[in-house]
Amino acid sequence: MRIRLVEVIRLDLVLLHSLRTSVGTHARRPVVIVRIETDAATGWGECSALLEPNYTEEYADGAERILQEFLVPSLLAAGAIERTLDACLATMDCVRGNPMAKSALEMALLDAHLRESNRSLAEMLGSSRRAIDAGANVSLGSRDEVLQATELCVAAGYRRVKLKIAPGSDVANVEAIRATYPDLLLCVDANGAYDLERGDDLAALHALDRCGLTAIEQPLAPEDLLAHARLSSLLETPIMLDESVATLGTLDLVIALSAADGLCIKPARVGGIRIARAMHDRAVAAGLHCSIGGMLETGIGRSAAVTVGALPGFDLPGDLGGSARYFSPDLTPAHELIDGQLLVPTGAGIGVMPVEETLRSAQTSSSVFPAL
Ligand SMILES: [Mg+2]
């Protein structure tokens, strides 16, 4: 592929449903979009870094600068020459960490590359399922708030809910949802809020273990793999790790320590589609369950995540929902919920394109980097 230019576009969106977790509330949704023009195609990528560095270390302003000051200049340093996809991707090795910034550039490169040969991401990955089960996140809240929010999700057709929890806002809420919706697939996500050294926390986790949950996600601090290993041996409910597993090396540690029963894989969080694929393969080989996770993406990032989520090892329901859970209008034609599922895009590249007018009307800045 021969790259002509890269554009880094900053948007400021507002979520239709703000999401409250144990680390903060996400209401505004800054988005950094990467557009790559080659001689033969245009590719789009989305950076999922949030407004503040409270979910992981990355945040939108920082990721935007990493792209503008390091990743894009490194990609364009060779000039407008013909290169393989792998050669283009290797230019990102100049930056340590910063997986969300890298995943945006990777997505745009993959999208452009696949569009040049009219192939789909699903074809490239071998994602054979035509649709995946959708899921909805319910914010941390009072008993009435979580019941009301769950009711809305169920009425919209969701069969699977992930409830955000924290110490003091957990067992009673789960029991209330269970009493009203005994058959709902329900999991909880603590975003690392519990501590095994606190007796009340351990008691709450034991009580949650009796609630018929599909999984307890990231109960303890992300770095604390030994404590997760101890907790996994104490509980029957599968422990699923999200923030803990940022690299393949950490996944190897999780497997060696038996620190979890499953992984919530978010392509944006782990550094892109290729690493998400490798994590899926390694997790499946080790007998771990996989769940596909979202990062409150627009239709661009969500399309890629849905396609990754259609790989065969994703056996636990994910938390990707239809466009109506996030934005109106979405940046792309809306993802609709059909019988509780989302269709896997089959078009070339990531399978969707943003609606240019919607994208430009939400744009707050743009920088264009030509390949010379
Ligand atoms: Mg999570």
Give an overview in words.
- The chain is globular.
- It folds into two domains: 133 residues, Enolase-like, N-terminal domain (Enolase-like, domain 1, 2-Layer Sandwich); 221 residues, Enolase-like C-terminal domain (TIM Barrel, Alpha-Beta Barrel).
- It is 35% helix and 22% strand.
- With 372 residues, the protein is α/β, with parallel strands linked by helices.
- Helix 1 packs across helix 3 and helix 9 packs parallel to helix 11.
- The structure holds magnesium ion.
- The site of magnesium ion has 6 residues, from loops.
Task: Sum this structure up briefly.
By secondary structure, the chain is of the alpha/beta class. The chain has two domains: 3-117 and 353-370, 2-Layer Sandwich (Enolase-like, domain 1), CATH 3.30.390; 123-343, TIM Barrel (Alpha-Beta Barrel).
CATH architectural type of the largest domain: Alpha-Beta Barrel
> Stretches where pLDDT falls below 50 for ≥5 residues?
none
SSE run: EEEHHHHEEHEHEHEHEHEHHEHEHE
Shape verdict: globular
Reported for the largest beta sheet, the result is: 7 strands, parallel
Radius of gyration: 20 Å
CATH homologous superfamily caption of the largest domain: Enolase-like C-terminal domain
What is the β-strand count? 13
Secondary structure category:
alpha/beta
Helix count from the secondary structure assignment: 13
Distance between the termini: 15 Å
Approximately how much beta-strand content do the residues carry? 15-25%
Bound molecules: magnesium ion
Q: What proportion of the residues is helical, as a percent range?
A: 25-40%
Output the CATH topology of the largest domain.
TIM Barrel
